[in-house]
Amino acid sequence: MDVISAVTPPQGFENLDSFRAERAERAYKSFEGMFLQELLKEMRKAQPESELFPKSDAMKKYEEMLDGVLAQSMADSGQLGIAKELQAEARKREAAEMLAVDRTMQKQALETLKGAPNSADNLSGLGLGE
């Protein structure tokens, strides 16, 4: 992937913000799917293995693939809500960061105004005061 395609939204997206939102949503759902897959994997480990019918390597691989598909299907349904919660937390964090940036900019502007001479000094310096 080149640098231009990494920041340029593909066709179908009006602006970069909607493109980033779509990518973030897919990332959160993918994370939820990986989490669910690990959960299913650990649940399978808790299941006692039959001595009469031991699992072959092929059966273990099949169950692993089945868990992956099932986990992604569960994540895509959105019923568990992990992806939605992650998105909500990310929005809160972004809002807090934007507020902090705004406050910093306001403080810098106030400090600049405090250091600037007042309007009466400006007028007298121009010969218009008094």
Word description of this protein:
By secondary structure, the protein is mainly α. The chain folds into 2 domains: about 1-80, no CATH class; about 90-130. It contains 5 helices and no strands.
Strand content is under 5%
Classify the secondary structure makeup into a structural class.
mainly alpha
- Global geometry: elongated
The tally of beta strands, per DSSP, is 0
Report mean pLDDT, rounded to a whole number.
82
Q: Over the alpha carbons, how many angstroms does the gyration radius reach? A: 29 Å
Cα distance spanning the termini: 67 Å
Q: How many helices?
A: 5
Outline the biggest β-sheet: none
| Sequence stretches where pLDDT stays below 50 over 5 or more residues | none
The sequence of SSEs as H and E is HHHHH
- Report helical residue fraction: over 70%
How many discrete domains? 2
Short description, anyone?
Helix content is 75%, strand content 0%.
Task: Give the key terms.
130 residues; mainly alpha; 2 domains; 75% helix
Task: Give the SSE layout.
Elements: H1 3-7, H2 16-46, H3 57-77, H4 82-115, H5 119-125
Helix pairs in contact: 2-3, 2-4
